[in-house]
Amino acid sequence: MKIQLKSRSKTVFSVSIDNETWGILPNRILQFFSLHPESENELSPDKKNELILEIEKYSWDKLLNFLTYRERSVWECSDYLKQLPLHLSLIDKLIQKAKQSSFLDDERFAEMYVLDLIAKNRSGMQIRSKLIEKHISENIIEKVFTEYFSEKQSEQILSANFRKAINRFHSLPAEKRKEKILNYLTGKGFSYSEVKRKLDEEGC
Predict the structure, then answer these.
(1) pLDDT tens, position by position, 11-54
(2) At what angle do helices 124-133 and 138-148 cross, to 10 degrees?
(3) Choosing a second label site near 148 at 20 to 30 A (CA), which of 12, 76, 157, 176?
(4) What is the pTM of this model?
């Protein structure tokens, strides 16, 4: 088995086996296999399997560290592992392991993400768009919206953004202010009709 090493940083190298990239490893581990970046490297099939196991363990630690900072979606984790880079078979294996260990759950991620965006007064359209960007399924999106995003919640968020728009454009003439508020709020994902209704309610 021919092993090729390509520098990713001063101490970390991507590892290819017979011209197929499998993952990354630090030099301290590669040295145990007597692998060197400047040399032609050969490994027996048994040693190749040991090397792949080390890549898997190292990538698992990287994934756990990635999950430490906040909840992640399955897509985010898959994309992170692809960027290491990591072989597709190992990506699938680690994603399944993370799910089985309850470290990774798209529904839990969506719930926490939606609550965070609600706290930041994001519109329903913005929240849906953000969830779609994270590749959350439509079923999960609908379930989370049903549970957390009521009409009352939507109205409170619209009101908060409306107040911000009023403060932002308060010095403009009435017609110009109305136009700016409409553009500002529709740009944030609120529909023309609900913004127009709000303007009429507030006498703007």
Answers:
(1) 999 999 999 999 999 999 999 999 988 777 899 999 999 999 99
(2) 150
(3) 76
(4) 0.89
